[in-house]
Amino acid sequence: MNKLLWPVFGTSFIFLMTCLGSSVVFFFRDKTNKSVQTVFLGFAAGIMIAASVFGLLVPAIEESEASGFIGWVPAAAGFLIGVLFLFALDKIIPHLHPESGVREGLSSSMKRTTLLVSAVTLHNIPEGMAVGLSFALAASHSDDPMMYSSAVALALGIGIQNFPEGAAVSLPLRREGFSTGKSFLVGCLSGATEPLFGLLILLISGVIGPFMPWLLAFSAGAMLYVVVEELIPEAHLDEHSHFGTMSVMAGFIIMMILDVALG
To answer: The whole model's pTM is what?
Structure first.
């Protein structure tokens, strides 16, 4: 397959999965069962944890060592920068957490619904970057077809976890009074940052090649920040929910299997 078609496929897939998740609003028109939301968010958290470790941090260390550097240095530093980057965006960009109703970011007069969409759209950025970087890394090792398999595995995993993320946008919007169709459309468009940033990364891959280990770790740090800051608390795991805990484990195992089986 052409080198450009792989990332187009990958980024299109993760976007379409967000849209598919948003379509849940057509079936759950009233407030969703708390256990369903817990399972959705916990599953997404498990996939993102495994994707960050197996799909991003491990390749970052391997790529750094292959270049003759100490493997953990760019991995640790890039990871920390990714965490701080998302932390800064959380403090700057106005957004609203759908489950708790807590507003974060700079003071803003934006509507509640706009803030709801802003929260998920903001946190989709590192996922798009991760897929773009993974395919850019594969393109730089075109003689190794397994690199493309690993990139596909990462796209599959992120795509799967985008299903509950899409639902996490459209369902609250429906409860806020949006029509079912508009809730679906806005939820779908909240994932547009993923193909945008994914393809942007690919276009500048020739320039960022030497910094690939740092950027892979950066994406991992940003994704894990989202998991710890957003997904796990909103899955109500602090209430000792066995549903949430087991869904995290299930997501982790599925992503691990995808990475090992395809990579």
So the answer is: 0.80
